[in-house]
Design a protein that fits this description.
globular; 22% strand; six-stranded mixed β-sheet
Amino acid sequence: MRLLLATRNRKKLDELRRILSGAVTVDLVGLDDVPPYPEAPETALTFAGNAVAKARDGAKATGLACVADDSGLTVDALNGMPGVFSARWSGRHGDDAANMDLLLKQLGDVAPPDRKAAFVCAAAVVFPDGREHVVNGEVRGELLTRPRGDKGFGYDPVFLPDGFDLTTAEMAPEQKDAISHRGKAFRTLADWLAGQIS
């Protein structure tokens, strides 16, 4: 089965390939591997809403089952923000350094234990026949005052998961996959897909 992951992020593709390999056999491709199609902007105010919209677009345009996710960082002291705005928190979409810098400035006077946060992911799959399924994953932790580590992306260098001494940017990919919000959501989705394909 050919499965589209609605992303151009090669790291995200690699991550899903690693996770799916243990549960189901699929040929996973990304947006750069299919003919271009109009991609609607992410306008939903929930992770699930954005994930389903992207997956619907991909399935309709390509005729492939399409997986999409939306994920981000929710910070308790910021009433759950940046949330769905995580990738463009600084006003520039995908500028990880600027997003992290702004977040750290906003939390400048907030001391532990009030720097609690969670990475949250909603992952959706939409089939060309209209079937849809959405799952969620979350990992809680706290935000450090300065970045540590050079692996991962986004807010990984300042996120210390509960029960660990390493940020998610200091972890090996397999260690991060085992605990991450996206890893949890994608593993749940992979198990569900295995039941649909078998």
